[in-house]
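Inverse folding, one chain.
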């Protein structure tokens, strides 16, 4: 099979691309605009594989998308490209509306036109897998409640509202045009190659540098953490075996308060890097509480029983095993993150032109 993966230079997309190239016989076309979040250095281990190809393009650019579908003739689309950072969506929502809503609409239309002209056997096998987040469901008040696939949408941030909009578009294309779609909503991911603006890598790198560890509000916001490589196997399972028209929630059964995540990282660093920056006795001493994020949801938790029951997927990592692997990865891959921090990882970025480059 040939899979078109959008956003394959991002955190989760690169894990999906590495998984497919390393563990299956399928081919991948990685379509990515290379925004600040796209990093081809996350794909070094597979970039020379003949089953892998990178195409630089913008999902909002219909002309480029039509050319890419016509040239590469994919059997399946996994759509991950998005603006993904909640804080950035609060500071500047426009790009989230553009990429997550208009971009998904443009992908749906390009893919639908391509699908319409496929011969019937390929048309029947084709599917469009839209990758979304549990944040579309909003805040969970009770401590026992879980998000199921039937939970109604109540997004709180510009990011989650834009992802909710894109999910609605995907379902409308299924219902209205019979376009074969499948949707997944996943909890917070963590693991290798995570951009250092996100909670876990930010805390690891700040602690190593002796900088404050900023925790929003009282740090009691609860998230359900999933190791990114587990998400990649779940996504491949749904893309290839999921039932058309269905939604699958994906989660790690690992509910943790943010403050406990930060304290776990600090304890691991106390053990793994005993020679601390000057003036630091324990890494926990660096924790600093800062003003909470506006509209901050208190708790997300996923009921992932449907994907387990129907498709046989369960996560391989516990939070304890995954967070240890993650901290060790950052300790052993300084070159990757120092090039992100100093900006030297960046490649030529696409402007607003309709240029599409294959590298
Ligand atoms: N990170 C999480 O915890 C999480 C959890 C659940 C769902 N998701 C969803 O998974 C997907 C991937 O998330 P991520 O954390 O890997 O994001 P990311 O920000 O690390 O990567 C996004 C990628 O999309 C690319 N991109 C952005 N705008 C584009 C455009 N207009 N055209 C083409 N490419 C573009 C970027 O260059 C980047 O490579 C997103 O749809 C996100 O909503 C993320």
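Residues assigned per position:
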């Amino acid at each position: 099979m040939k899979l078109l993966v959008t956003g394959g230079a991002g955190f989760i997309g690169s894990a999906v691309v590495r998984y497919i190239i390393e563990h299956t016989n399928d081919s991948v076309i990685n379509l990515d605009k290379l925004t600040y979040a796209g990093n081809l250095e996350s794909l070094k281990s597979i970039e020379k594989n003949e089953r892998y190809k990178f195409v630089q393009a913008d999902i909002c650019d219909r002309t480029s998308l039509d050319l890419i579908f016509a040239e590469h003739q994919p059997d399946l689309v996994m759509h991950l490209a998005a603006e993904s950072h909640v804080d950035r969506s609060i500071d500047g929502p426009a790009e989230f509306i553009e990429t997550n809503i208009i971009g998904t609409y443009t992908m749906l239309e390009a893919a639908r036109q391509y699908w319409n002209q496929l011969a019937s056997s390929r048309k029947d096998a084709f599917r469009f897998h839209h990758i979304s987040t549990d944040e579309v469901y909003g805040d969970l008040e009770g401590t026992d409640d879980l998000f199921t696939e039937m939970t109604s949408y109540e997004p709180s941030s510009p990011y989650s509202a834009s992802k909710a909009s894109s999910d609605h578009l995907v379902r409308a294309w299924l219902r209205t045009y019979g376009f074969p779609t499948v949707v997944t909503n996943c909890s917070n991911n963590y693991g290798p190659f995570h951009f250092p603006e996100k909670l876990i890598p930010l805390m690891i790198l700040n602690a190593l540098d002796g900088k404050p560890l900023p925790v929003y509000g009282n740090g009691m916001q609860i998230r359900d953490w999933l190791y990114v490589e587990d998400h990649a196997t779940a996504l491949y399972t749904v893309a290839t075996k999921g039932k058309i028209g269905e939604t699958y929630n994906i989660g790690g059964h690992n509910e943790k308060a943010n403050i406990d995540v930060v304290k776990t990282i600090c304890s691991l660093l106390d053990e793994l890097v005993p020679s601390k920056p000057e003036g630091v006795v324990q890494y926990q001493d660096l924790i600093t509480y800062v003003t909470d994020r506006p509209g901050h949801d208190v708790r997300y938790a996923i009921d992932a029983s449907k994907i387990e029951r129907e498709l046989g997927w369960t996560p391989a990592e516990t939070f304890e095993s995954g967070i240890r692997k993650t901290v060790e990865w950052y300790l052993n891959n300084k070159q990757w993150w120092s090039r992100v921090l100093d900006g030297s990882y960046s490649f030529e970025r696409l402007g607003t032109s309709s240029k599409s480059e294959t590298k």
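The CA atoms of residues 28 and 52 lie 5 Å apart. The pocket of nicotinamide-adenine-dinucleotide is lined by residues 6-7, 9-13, 32-35, 37-38, 58-60, 80-84, 99, 103, 131, 133, 163, 186, 188-189, 195 (CB under 6 Å).
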